[in-house]
Amino acid sequence: MPLISGKILFEVANEFNFAICGFNFNNLEFLKAILEGALEEEAPVFIQTSETAIKYAGIEYLSGLVHAVKDYYPIPFALHLDHGRSVESVLLAIRHGYTSVMIDWSDKLFEENLKITKEVVSLCAPLGISVEAELGRLVSLEEVATSGESFLVNPEEAKEFVDKTGIDALAPAIGTSHGAFKFKGEPKLDYERLKRVKELTGIALVLHGASGVYPEYVEEFNRFGGQLEGAKGVPDEAIEKAVRLGINKINVDTDLRIAFMATLRRLMAEERSSIDPRKFLKPAMEEVKKVVKRRIRLSGSSGKAELFKKYL
Questions:
Q1: How far apart are CA 42 and CA 305, in angstroms?
Q2: CATH numbers and ranges of domains, the chain
Q3: Which of 94, 118, 236, 287 falls between 20 and 30 A from 293, CA-CA?
């Protein structure tokens, strides 16, 4: 099946009030686990590569893998650039067949972010490629309270930003952060802020830093020599509430990594004489697929592939 534009994924998810998962990959095992999990759940999905993944594997390999297998998976999915930091990165993605991009200048002043995002939209919109952008910085509410700085998205600025740039989706900072250590105390998200942004913009919204950091994988990771003590993610119920309030895309990376590495650590401890990497990689890939399916169900996108039939 041809890759679908992120514009369509965002529009349908927004119209029917559910979220589509954006899963990051940087190798064959992760890509296969993501697509097979999505296929079994009959769910649309964003397949994502970050700039660091591109630096690691090369965009030719990553995009080549996706384009080589896309016709084997009869589900709607887009190839998305996650956290693109420059126009050059966006252009590189366009040249290699990406159907969705994110331009992230959220660490810059509002006007700078608006200017570069508007430029990216002008490049992508005529090609039918969706553009996601971000406002605010991904830090926990604890950090916001102790720092005295305003890291979270300003809803009024969000409306201005959306109106002036013409983006397809906005990632508003509401209290999540990247990585395995998202919260020191109890997990908290600013739901009222999220609700206000949705009311003012009406646009598809994206939740970054949304991994659950599931305790069973953290425990296994630590039991076999890892060091992730105190790791904490976003609870499932918090994700469900965020989706009800207007989140339409949920980014997941850390959960896949922990499941994969926890399984590898266990198998390498148990299979000390094996030199066949496939004996380790396949079971690890299966664990990633389990997490993919779990997150898809949580987002509400399981079974939603049928909504896209008229676009395919």
A1: 5
A2: 6-303 (3.20.20.70)
A3: 94
Has 82 been annotated as catalytic?
yes
Is the full-model pTM beyond 0.90? yes
Q: Which candidate in 71, 82, 107, 163 is catalytic?
A: 82
What's the alpha-carbon Rg for the chain, to the nearest Å? 19
Q: CA-CA distances (angstroms) from residue 290 to 41, 45, 239, 296, 301?
A: 11, 15, 18, 10, 15
> What is the token pair recorded at 280?
């380790």
Question: pLDDT, tens digit, for every residue of 79-120?
Answer: 999 999 999 999 999 999 999 999 999 999 999 999 999 999
Q: Which two tokens stand for residue 196?
A: 């206000």
